[in-house]
Every structure is written in structure tokens, then in C-alpha cells.
Amino acid sequence: MGVAADDGPVEHVSAVAAGRVIEAPPSAGGYPVHLGAGILSGIGDVWSGRARGGRVLLVHDAAVVEIAGMVEASMVDAGLHVVRAPVPSGESSKSLAEVERLCRLAADAGLRRADSVVALGGGMIGDLAGFVAASYQRGIDLVHVPTTLLAMVDSAIGGKTGVNLPEGKNYVGAIWQPKLVYMDVEVLDSLPERELASGFAEVIKYAFLEGGDLLELVESWPVLPGPREALIDLVARCVEHKLRVVAVDERESGLRASLNLGHTAGHGIEAATEYERYAHGEAISLGLLVALRLSADHAGLDEAHRDRAATVLRRHGLPDKLHPEVDLDRVMDALGRDKKSDGTALNMVLISAPGEVILGADPPRDEVRRAISELRR
Ligand code: GLY
What we know:
This protein is of the alpha/beta class. It has helices at 43-48, 65-77, 96-108, 123-135, 149-155, 193-210, 212-219, 228-248, 263-272, 280-298, 304-315, 328-337, 365-373; strands at 10-13, 20-23, 32-36, 55-61, 81-87, 116-121, 141-146, 160-165, 168-175, 180-184, 348-353, 356-361. The strands form three sheets. An eight-stranded mixed sheet has the order 1-2-3-10-7-6-4-5, sandwiched between helices. The longest helix is centred in the middle third of the chain and has 21 residues, at 228-248.
């Protein structure tokens, strides 16, 4: 993908209790990503060794009470003062009203500029708590503790934070890099199957962006979540890929847009179905098939790759067919309003082969429409 190899993430093995560590390059934020199984109880020691202040606002999904209790206990044992802030599950919590509530909670608890926010949950929590960290007292330290596969391989890495407006998703936000990312794949054991598969859709996306042995590995992946050590390796591959991209283009003025493979049509399908019919990764699965169809028609991709993608998606319970009730006009309408579109061009990501990315493509709308309606057959 034309990413400079000498600015890549560096992986090493730390103290056993804290898992293996991938160091984000300085230009991607320069923070450690700890990754392992059964390492959650080590988070207090790791963070207390880096934190500048003693207070922590622990923003967590209300659905992960037990994990939040473990993180809190570990931090308290390490001498940190923890203020728990449960947030109701669901996208409606990603709002400016919730940002205000959390900032005021931080103020009431006496958090100062050296203190920190810990984001414990999936993508919604990471985006919301990340934006609180970016905004409170003009920015305080942030720790991501992702509890979904999607958050591990995507949203906890790279610094995107933000909340929704009625006018659009992620319309208010900031790039705010964490000081630590701490991932324990054991937490995935309690993740509903559908959510695990949804995260795997992003893994499949990386496989087509990178090609080579990552694509082969993903194609042959067994029932999710899969063998523990192999899963840690797989998550590490995705994290390393994203860090390499963010290192050269943190603000998405170029290469970072490649991570949107499958997201143009995917977001259109999500928006046209009120974000209710499909989980994010399910919509991305459909969007990936649209992108691969257009890649075959416009970028010389061997058509067999689209079938490869459909086979692996189906195997993990991800959709390769669009529900007949989904209104194609609404999907096309939503595509034009997508943040990635500049109002005229769609700015789609295509590939000419696995690992060979084309940015800023603008295929004719009737062909995009045909590629989406193909999903109905
Ligand atoms: N989720 C894509 C990105 O972080 O750029």
C-alpha cells in the first residue's frame, strides 16, 4: 500500500501479566498497545506507571459492569482514584448531551488537566469518552480499553473521537490519540455472536486492503472467535496495519481513507435503514461486496475476489444479500450525503488486486446503483 516500512509499529513482549506490546510510531501518537488474554487485572499497574495524575474517569458501557469492576479494582489497587461513569448502551448515548453530562461529572469529581479518562466498551464508548477526553479542560489523557472485536481492530486505534448530531453521524469530534490502549481478548468470550461477526467484517476489510497471507489467514479462519493465540496474532495484524496507515496520514487527507473500503455503500445502507436493520459490520459486509463489484468493473480486480469475499462473509453469518425491503433510492440518496463525499464525487475506495488500493474513485451513479441492486439477487 505504499506505506513507509521504517515508520511502522514495533512489537515486543513485556512483562507476562501485561501481554505483548505494539508501539504506535510517534507520528501515529506514540503510545503502547497492550494485547493479550487474561491481562485485564494488570491494567492498573500499567496505567499508574504512566499516568500523570491520580484521578481516572472510568466511562464504561452499562452492559459491561463486571469488566468495569475488574478494571476499577485493578486501578484502585495501583493507587488510582476511580470515578465510575456508566453510559447506557446504544448509539443514542453518542450525543453532545452525554458529553456535557460526563464533563460535568469529571468537574464535580475534581479531575484536573493531569488526570485521565478511561474508555471501556465498544466503538460508541470509545468515540464518546474519547471526545470527552479531547474536550475536558482542553484535553486530558485517554486510555482505550476496547471490549468488542470491532473496537479492538478499528475504533480504539487511530484517535478518531466524536459524537452524532441529528444532522449526521460523527459530525462533531476531534482527533485525540490515546496514551495507552489495553486489549484483553478474553472479554470477547461474552460478546454476542452477531457482534463478534460484525467486528470480523472489519478484519475481512483489512485482509483485502493488505492481501497476501493476511487474506489467506482470514479466509481459512474457523468459527469465531477462534483459537486464542491465533486471535491475538490476528488482532495484532489489524492493529499494525492501521497504525502504519495512521502514521503517514493521521488526519485522513490521503491513505487513511483506504480504511473506508466498503464504508461508502455500507454507510448508505445503514443510513437508509435508520441504523436499525444492520449492525455496523453487517452493513460494511454489503458495502465491501459493492466496492469489490465496482473494483472488478472499474479497476481491473479479478471478479473471483468478490466471490471469495462473499464466501468468507457467509461463513461467519455476515450478509451477502440485501433485504428486499431496503429502498435503493434511499441508499443512493444517503451516499450523496456521506461525509466522505465532497458533494459531487463519492470518493470511494476500490482495489485493483488485494493489497493494491485506489483512492478517490467516483464511479458513475448508475453503476453504483447496479452494484447495490446486485445484492438483491
Ligand atoms: N475507521 C477508520 C479510521 O479510523 O480511519
